[in-house]
Amino acid sequence: MSPGRIPLYRALYEKLRRHIVDGLYREGDLLPSENELCKLHNLTRPTVRKALDLLNNEGFIKRHQGLGSVVHKLPKGIGILSISGTTTAIGRDNLETRTIIKPVLTSWPPDFPFSLSDNEKEVGCMNFTRLRLVSGKPVIYDISYIPNINLPRFTARNLDNKSLFNILRTAYGIEVKGGEQYIKAINAPEPDICSILDIRPETPVLHLQRRIDTNRLNFYLYSILYCNTGGHSLYGIF
Amino acid sequence: MSPGRIPLYRALYEKLRRHIVDGLYREGDLLPSENELCKLHNLTRPTVRKALDLLNNEGFIKRHQGLGSVVHKLPKGIGILSISGTTTAIGRDNLETRTIIKPVLTSWPPDFPFSLSDNEKEVGCMNFTRLRLVSGKPVIYDISYIPNINLPRFTARNLDNKSLFNILRTAYGIEVKGGEQYIKAINAPEPDICSILDIRPETPVLHLQRRIDTNRLNFYLYSILYCNTGGHSLYGIF
DNA sequence: CAGTGGTCTAGACCACAGT
DNA sequence: CTGTGGTCTAGACCACTGA
Predict the structure, then answer these.
(1) Cβ of residue A233 closer than 8 Å to a chain B Cβ
(2) Which DSSP letter does residue A215 get?
(3) What architecture (CATH level 2) is domain A82-235?
């Protein structure tokens, strides 16, 4: 599958995003004005604005009429409520992912929280779980379900320290477009999850149920997350 | 300054949004195509597309190249993660708001979770709390802090069953533009909050700390929420 | 194939912030 | 005042869907 053409606004977005993340701009700094960016990259203003819209929607900048685009700091993975430490910010360095249960083809759980199409029910799903650790400490346990539709050799893939989204994009041409999630606070669930997250049974835990949209029509990813927020909060913008 | 001119794309967005919420379109229905909407409302395509972008970002529609804009099912939880959800209570009837502590001018709490500018510290803040009830049952306890900057007669206002955002917009010309939040699961906090939410002391509760951006430069609203998710999930899109 | 949304251009006028 | 971002127009070509 070819990488696919990258839109100009997207390329500019990623360039500016990298500059912000890498610290070329600091919190409170002004980005070049829209007209300056036009000249710098040989683009027209709507295209530049679309790139800035993305940065704005993801919280990297805030725009102010008459002033400019102000850098707002902050990391954020695509569509994820990223983790933010209570004391120190978390870079990509100390974030680790371990596969606990490797992908297996199975049928959907009877108590699955999302309604499934007939097609999804019929083909069953890949099921696998991963543990996210911050500075070596377990924080998020992620149970993923992917409909078993045209993903050859997926069960053989190693997901450790790799982005599931990147694998889906590069190997299968599937792009994540967004999603929805339901969030609850619960007391720690089954004992095995407690031990994986290294928490006592009565610990309060965040429980997230997510359905993730892709560029394939009627193809969704599902995941259920348990998150120990004792040391870190989930962070989101809106 | 008067209520402020409403942009064309915004007007179209609100019209379509109302049609979806009112059930004129159902889940899975196709919206009129972009070109049809252009003709119907005498707008150009970029303007129409901007309205659709808003609907898309808030989860009301999903667009598919070659197919059209598909109406998405409405969220069943409480849309506190999305900006539009708080004002109009998507998907939930019987949402009620009661003021528990009326607005009082005070100083900022010593353990305030967000860093404040010197100006904010100097002027102090309005503090008030509200309780959100769904079908008569308490669900969210909302502790709000607003910097005491040029908001005449605010303490005299009645906030019951009114949108704080609407009051700020109509009476003071302040528009909410977005915000950020930190989310944790905790065991139920102080006893008075437990009794207000009608929960036992060991109940797990969602804890949200939010900073909300406005169209006024360096003017933010702050609120701390405790949410009993025993009966309802919080819902969000990304 | 026709129609859809996705991207992009090249202009225009306005409202607001800082000087 | 100048320069900023906010809004809007009127075209164009492409990639994808469904028939």
Answers:
(1) yes
(2) S
(3) 3-Layer(aba) Sandwich (3.40)
Protein contacts on strand C: list nucleotides below 7 Å from a Cβ.
2-12, 15-18
Q: Does domain A8-71 have CATH number 1.10.10.10?
A: yes
Sequence-separated (6 or more) residues with CB below 8 Å from residue B67: A217, B30
Tell whether the model's pLDDT for residue B160 goes beyond 80.
Answer: no
Q: Which amino acid is at A220?
A: Y
What is the residue whose two structure tokens read 């019209």?
B15
What confidence score (pLDDT) does residue B1 get? 40
CA triplet A20, B58, A171: central angle to 5 degrees? Answer: 60
Q: Residue A159: is its pLDDT beyond 60?
A: yes
| Distances B148 to A110, A174, B107, B108, B142 between C-alpha atoms, Å | 53, 49, 10, 11, 18
> Do B238 and A79 count as a contact with CB atoms less than 8 A apart?
yes
For residue B184, the distance in angstroms to the closest alpha carbon of chain A comes to: 5
Query: Which pTM value belongs to this model?
Result: 0.89
> Of the given ranges (A122-131, A137-146, B174-183), which has the lowest mean pLDDT?
B174-183
